[in-house]
Structure formats: structure tokens, C-alpha cells
Amino acid sequence: MKNIRIAVLGMNQGYKFAKDALTIPGVELVAVAGNNEQAERRAQELEVPLYKNYQELIEECQDLDGIIITLPNGLHREVVELCAEKGIHVLVEKPIAATVEDAEAMVNAARKNQIKLLVGHHRRFSNKLIKLREIISSGALGELTGVNMLYMLAKDHSYFSEKWRLTQGGGPMLINGIHDIDTLLFVTGLTIKSAYTVMQNKIRNNPVEDTAAIILETVEGPIINYFLSDGTPSPWSYDSTAKENPKFAQYEENCYKIFGTKASIAFPSFEIYTYDENHFGWEHKLQKSKVEVVDNDPMMAELLHFINILNGKAEPFVTGEDGLETLKVITAIKSSAERKQKVEINLYQQKKKITQ
Which of 294, 237, 287 is nearest to 267 (CA)? Predict the structure, then answer.
């Protein structure tokens, strides 16, 4: 059986994909793309050809089965359309695109050319989130009433040396907040119908936000409260508490709390609070239990899933439509802040448009 031939575009986030690909039997890393000194060093370490122009890589590398796209968001549509025309399946990093219009075009291009489109919301491959989703869907919490989410941390000063991170589209909402919003949609199955947002940029005084407070209404009823900032010393973020990425300092804290009519759960500690069957109400002491979960590497799990897609053994677990739904919520959140009013989200209409 022939090897699965892949290429990786972008040597920042894409570097881990490329390294992990080299460890998978039956997978051949054909080439990588990048246009700076870091990309040159990493291509040498990986011992694969480096293309400074990703278009040339797509044109010249023959018989590619799949391409992993970790380029700037604004390039995603162009690259996916190029791959679709050549019949190359793609894993495109989150967000699926910079705009809803681009995301729609990508989904339609994949469908028209019959390629598989996997969107890189890698947290959906986390054992922790899969278990949280199972607990919620089992009804153990009763009917959901609300969710409280925090993403609070301070990024290194060197992080902002890349100027695009100081302009619109480079702030924590689109880079980090999109992960939390996608996580919310994945574990709860809720449909967001409106967003009200207040954003500030007082920490660094750049054009892009550094702090945001968001209220989300759902079709099903539960209300979500979400607060994030990337300039505040704090242990309360997914990256600092889930312990899935060794880059981040780790803490025994929680970043999400999910509330139901029967019980509430803290994540990622998986501490569940409820009353015993004979007592209910604030005069009685809550009972606490804890669920144990085996850790995994979600990005490696995502890559292995992509390889299974290329082998014809699986369909995308995170579809283009999934990525579009998450992006549409993020777009509404940012629009609300700009317009200083609540913004409605018609996801039903959006889904109908994509499936026509």
C-alpha cells in the first residue's frame, strides 16, 4: 500500500503537524512552505524541501493526498480553492476563514470538487471535552440553565512583535476566543441566537481589542457569560488549566462552569455539585463528586483523524459547516462591539444557504 503524501503550509502552528507526521507509519511529509528564517531552520530539521511560495508547492508537488493549511486567516480561501481544483483534501486551521463570505466559498468549493474539508478546531479531539460532552448529553446536569467561561491570561511581550497581532483580526477574540466558542458549541449542542459584547483596548492601546465581555443567548434557553483578556495575569484559561499544551504554565484551576437544573460541573477539574435524592435547596449541603479522564494530545488525535480521512476510513469530524457556524458567532460578537448593540444570529438561514 502506498504512503499517504502530505504537505504543510506554514511553519509556526504547522511545525507540530509536520513533526508529528514524521512519526506516523505510512505517511510521507513531501514538503513544507514558509518564508522566514524560522521556516528555513525548521525545514532543515525536518529534512524536507521548503517552498517560500505555497502556490509553487501546490503546483509542483505531484500526487499529494492532503495539505495542512496553517497560513494567515486571510489566505485560507485562496489555498482551499486551489487545493479543491486539484482534488487535494485539506485540513485548514481555525478560524476556517477571515470572513463568513470566504468560509461559505470554501465549503462550496470543497463540495463542488468533492474534496474533504477538515477544520482545525483541535479541541474537539480532546478526551476532556469529549467526556464533558458525554456528561452534558447524558442529562446528568438536568436541563442546562447557563455557562460561565473565562479566558484570562497575559501573553509574552515578544508575542506582539508580529504586527498583524496588533491590528483588527489579530486580537484575542479571533485567535483565542474562537476556540472557546467552538468548545461551547461542541460540548453543549446549543444554538446561539444573539450576542451582546463590550470590548476595550485600554491595556495596550492598539486598534485591536485586548479585553471583552460577552453575553450570548441561545435558541434553547441557556445564557452564556464569557469574559476574556490576553493582558491580565491569571490562571483561568483553557490553555493554563486543561494541561494539553506544554507551552503554557499549568494551574489546578477551572476555566468553565456549566449549570443545570440537577447539577453543575466545573471544567477541567470535573467536579460535579448536586444534592442527594432526598434533599434539595440552599439549606442543604451540596454533594461533590469527581470524574476522572485520561489525558491525550488533541492535535495528534486531529492529525491521525486527517490521515484516516485521506485513507478513506473516516469523514471529517469537524466539517466546514461546523467551522462556519463558529465563525458566524464570532463575527456577531465583534459586530456587536462595533455597533454597541445586541446582534441577532440566524444560523438556520446560514446552514440552509450552505446546503443548497
Answer: 237
